[in-house]
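[retry 2/3] MIF4G domain-containing protein: previous attempt timed out, resubmitting with same input.
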Amino acid sequence: HHCRTAEDLVGICNKVFDKAVTEHGYAALYAKLCIELSARCPSFKVEKVLPNGEKIVRKAAFKTILLTKCEKEFEGKSKQTLSLMKKIEDATDPDIKDILTVKLKKRRQGNIRFIGELYKAKLMANRMERILHLCIQRLLRDIKNPSEEDIVCLEVLLVTVGKQLDVPKAQKFMNTYFKRITSMAVNPKLPMRLKFKCQDVIDMRKRNWAKKGERVIVRKPATVVRGVHGRPNGILSRPDPRPVALPRQVGNRYGSFGSAVAAAPKPTPQVVVKSAPVSAVKRSTIVKTSPEVPGTKKAVKKDVSFDLTPVNTQVKIEKDILSLI
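[retry 2/3] MIF4G domain-containing protein: success.
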């Protein structure tokens, strides 16, 4: 709704590009944002006057403006890059000069990564692929005395989109690139840090562009089992289509198709002991009985005699016996 003129379109593109270049961690997110903006923002017709006075009408769209900015940034011809380079030349304080130099390097690396993320997001894929190959060729133009910045940018670019560029139709170009990278990895003039960067890219391609510590999944072709007459009998890699046998359910009072809860066991009958009234002096008899339990033998009565005479009565009897003596 806020993009009504070509100037608004250029302003939106500049803001998104500056954010994507300076914030490296969100390059993929800004690439997706650019896809949405290119679909939503309208295009405008812009008149451009050439030095000879001729007027040319061009179509200004979001994605064309964005790719033009990426190309200028890579070539070092953008306004921000030129202003930073001028500040570095004019700076007298070495600390400020170092800060500006680091800022310029990060901006260039961020631009390289953003170009790769735009290609992965398939924004004008054909044109972006050509731009990426031109970037790699320019970064590999001097392999005897390469600059540190070129090697770092090359590593960032290949780590980002190496897998997408390493396709059969571009195999010839990729092999040529890696021959030059291999020669740089053994260049005695380069410091060890830059040699390791070159070697990391070479090893990454050998691992099918998987990063260190990342699990590589290799999909093997399906193995066909031949039958008796040479016809395919089945494929081992596919799951067995036969249904799995379910466990048999436990039957209960609702039948075999009811709940799988087993019926509770019947309680064991308890033995009841009945005792006759006990006399104070006489010996009593206790009859131990058990009820009839189905499936068992008939209950049997047993007579068990105990001396249940109270203690005080027994003492009295002993005194009577002593008095008789």
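[retry 2/3] MIF4G domain-containing protein: The first strand starts at residue 44 and ends at 49.
[retry 2/3] clearing retry counter.
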